């Protein structure tokens, strides 16, 4: 009788994460993972109670990787650092970026979680202080459109291996200019309203 294959939880997680990076969460089934491990599904279920539990672990790991990029201090502007981080993640973790941001239509909640991580980071920027939540959300969404689009162009190699300086310049000229102009205009309008009410 052949010896039963023994896998640690870490080995199973590592192989599943590789599959997540390359193919997305939909491809991670007990059968597909067992095939990749060259084993039966039994070792998977001895380490994880369910495939959902494993997928939650994978998403948590992906968030950790992603947030490292988003929190990296490239400049003194938190919102710009978030954009550079998103684009650097797309450049250096192409497959993982595609799996999270381009493939997971069935996992819109996952995409929302990653988007909210960025939103939380950006909201720490002092330039957003004193702005109403609705306006901040509007600004964030507009920055997200630009940043996500730019990161997608990087992940799909429209821009081949762009430097952080190139990314910074494009973000400042595009989303940064739009953002600061909108904030300035908002504050000017509010000042005029206050003056006219006095």
Task: Describe how the helices and strands are arranged.
Blueprint: H1 9-23, H2 30-37, H3 42-47, H4 51-71, H5 78-92, H6 94-103, H7 108-122, H8 133-155, H9 164-197
Helix pairs in contact: 1-4, 1-6, 4-5, 4-7, 5-6, 5-8, 5-9, 6-8, 8-9
Q: What does this entry show, briefly?
A:
With 198 residues, this protein is mainly alpha-helical. The protein has helices at 9-23, 30-37, 42-47, 51-71, 78-92, 94-103, 108-122, 133-155, 164-197. The radius of gyration is 21 Å and the shape is elongated.
Explain the overall architecture.
The protein has 198 residues and is mainly α. It has a domain at 69-197. It has helices at 9-23, 30-37, 42-47, 51-71, 78-92, 94-103, 108-122, 133-155, 164-197. α8 (133-155) packs antiparallel against α9 (164-197).
- Beta strand %: under 5%
* Cα radius of gyration in angstroms: 21 Å
Main beta-sheet strand count, sense and barrel state: none
Averaged pLDDT, please?
85
N-to-C SSE series?
HHHHHHHHH
Number of strands: 0
What structural class should be given to the helix and strand makeup? mainly alpha
Keywords summarizing the entry:
single chain; 198 residues; mainly alpha; 9 helices
């Amino acid at each position: 009788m052949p010896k039963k294959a023994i896998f640690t939880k870490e080995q199973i997680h590592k192989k599943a994460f590789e599959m997540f990076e390359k193919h997305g969460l939909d491809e991670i089934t007990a059968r597909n993972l067992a095939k990749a491990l060259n084993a039966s599904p039994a070792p998977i279920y001895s380490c994880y109670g369910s495939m959902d539990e494993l997928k939650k672990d994978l998403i948590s790991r992906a968030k950790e990787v992603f947030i490292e990029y988003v929190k990296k201090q490239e400049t003194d502007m938190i919102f710009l650092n978030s954009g550079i981080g998103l684009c650097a993640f797309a450049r250096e973790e192409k497959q993982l970026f595609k799996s999270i941001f381009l493939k997971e239509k069935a996992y819109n909640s996952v995409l929302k979680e990653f988007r909210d991580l960025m939103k939380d980071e950006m909201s720490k920027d002092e330039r957003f202080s004193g702005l109403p939540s609705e306006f901040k959300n509007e600004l964030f969404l507009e920055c997200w459109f630009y940043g996500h689009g730019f990161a997608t162009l990087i992940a799909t190699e429209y821009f081949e291996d762009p430097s952080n300086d190139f990314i910074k310049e494009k973000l400042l000229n595009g989303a940064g200019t739009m953002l600061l102009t909108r904030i300035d205009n908002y504050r000017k309008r509010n000042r005029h309203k206050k003056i006219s009410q006095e």
